[in-house]
Design brief:
46% helix; alpha+beta; single chain; four-stranded mixed β-sheet; Protein Transport Mog1p, Chain A; five-stranded antiparallel β-sheet
């Protein structure tokens, strides 16, 4: 269900919304950018090898860029497949258009974006003054990280893997947020206090009607990513007496976290004794009934599973008109914690679709908790969601099933215009899988 744009885009909701202001001239933008570029380099103890190209962009430029990035950094059909997966999990209404919703969010929330392909930064029209300077600090950090670590190269290695992409983007955006905050603190005396107060209040209202599956993974990249890096700095200071705040970032980029679980529970990455790499689930599909094909396979991870399990208590809601609401957002829950690996497959036959999700847990108790929660989700959300997808005369259903071991549980949902008697059971029975240790990216030691 990978709907990350896999790009270093600044969501303005995290920074504040667009305000009534005059756009900067190109000359003024270049002058300000050059000065902040020096400051970013000083904060990171690294000099830029070359200047970053900057210019003002409008909404048409943004959408053009976003479409280009999706074409470059996602598998063919990724948006359509993600839409079906989200609908089969009750995360999108049956008649929703995922691409349209995503583009609308970007149009309303993006303050600027850095394009690794052209090594350029684009500031959106309507942003100037101290707000634009903060955005510049964030985006120029992306520019520096790209020159040091090749952001696009790393992202291409993770195409089609929602969980690993989310974990890497958390390092990318956590880096941008962390240094932006350091830049603000350094320059607080010369920043407009009123502008900085408005900075954290604005831009959240437009998230109110956006489905959680769209905004929360994006938000997690910034907020959970920043907390992940902060935990790394604390760990290095306490255990290795390293006080340079940039060392944690160097380690995270050199050997990135391999799952969102490690981002959400930083000790599972930073502490060698608590290191927890996920298992890999390998699915066999050769014996599927005639006409059924696998159109997509992915790994969801803890963050995505938390989106599904939070429906156990009904449709969650957040009051985005309250500036403090963002501080209360949770990116996991008890039912999703304890995740140890998964594999999700989207199958289709004609206009019918079936989702098959194999989950592996740290213990039998964790698997049982996920099962109990999902039984409530099936009752409260999924049965109704797949019924709408299938239509009045269609076949539909949702089940939580035992796995091949006591630590596994399987979720199956389906919606199809028609299905022969026993056909869905035959599809489920034909799907087999095995687990194996996934490859690890152990944090590098500093010499």
């Amino acid at each position: 269900m990978n709907i990350h744009l896999s790009s270093a885009i600044t969501i303005a909701a995290l920074l504040g919304g667009a305000v009534e202001s005059d756009d900067w001239t190109q000359e003024a933008l270049e002058e300000t950018s050059a000065a902040i570029q020096v400051e970013v380099g000083e904060l990171r103890n690294v000099e830029f090898a070359d200047p970053v190209r900057v210019q003002v962009a409008d909404k048409a430029d943004l959408i053009s860029y976003a479409v280009k990035r999706m074409d470059e950094m996602q598998l063919d059909g990724a948006m359509q497949n993600s839409e079906w997966m989200a609908k089969l999990l009750g995360l999108l209404p049956h008649d929703a258009d995922l691409e349209k919703l995503t583009m609308t969010l970007l149009e309303e929330q993006v303050g600027g974006f850095y394009d690794p392909g052209t090594k350029s930064f684009y500031l959106m029209q309507g942003f100037s003054g101290d707000l634009a300077r903060a955005i510049l600090a964030h985006e120029l950090t992306h520019a520096l990280d790209d020159r040091l670590y090749d952001l696009d190269g790393a992202l291409r290695e993770r195409i089609g893997h929602t969980d690993r992409t989310g974990a890497y983007m958390s390092v990318v955006e956590g880096s941008g947020n962390e240094l932006m905050n350091r830049w603000v603190m350094k320059n607080m005396a010369r920043l407009n206090p009123e502008a900085m107060r408005e900075f954290s209040k604005m831009g959240t209202e437009s998230l109110q009607n956006t489905p959680t599956v769209i905004w929360k993974p994006m938000m997690a990249s910034y907020m959970a990513g920043q907390r992940f890096l902060a935990a790394g700095r604390t760990h290095l200071r306490r255990n290795e007496k390293i006080r340079d705040p940039n060392v944690a970032l160097e380690r995270a980029f050199t050997a990135p976290p391999v799952s969102m679980e490690q981002v959400l529970h930083p000790e599972k990455y930073w502490s060698p004794e608590d290191r927890d790499d996920p298992v890999e689930v390998v699915r066999a599909t050769a014996e599927l009934p005639e006409g059924w094909i696998v159109v997509n396979e992915d790994v969801f991870g803890e963050l995505q599973l938390s989106l599904v399990t939070e429906f156990a208590d009904g449709d969650p809601s957040i009051d985005f008109s309250n500036p403090m609401s963002m501080m209360r957002i949770k990116y996991t829950n008890d039912a999703a914690a304890g995740w140890d690996g998964d594999s999700v497959a989207l199958l289709s036959k004609g206009d019918g679709h079936l989702l098959h999700l194999v989950t592996v847990w740290d213990s039998e108790e964790e698997a049982e908790e996920f099962e109990r929660t999902m039984e409530l989700v099936v009752e409260n959300t999924l049965n109704g969601a797949v019924a709408k997808l299938a239509g009045q005369d269609g076949a539909h259903g949702a089940r939580i099933l035992p796995g091949a071991s006591v630590k596994e549980r399987v979720l199956v949902t389906w919606a199809t215009p028609e299905a022969a008697e026993g056909e869905i059971d035959a599809v489920i029975d034909a799907l087999k899988w095995a687990t194996a240790a996934a490859s690890s990216e152990t944090p590098a030691e500093d010499g």
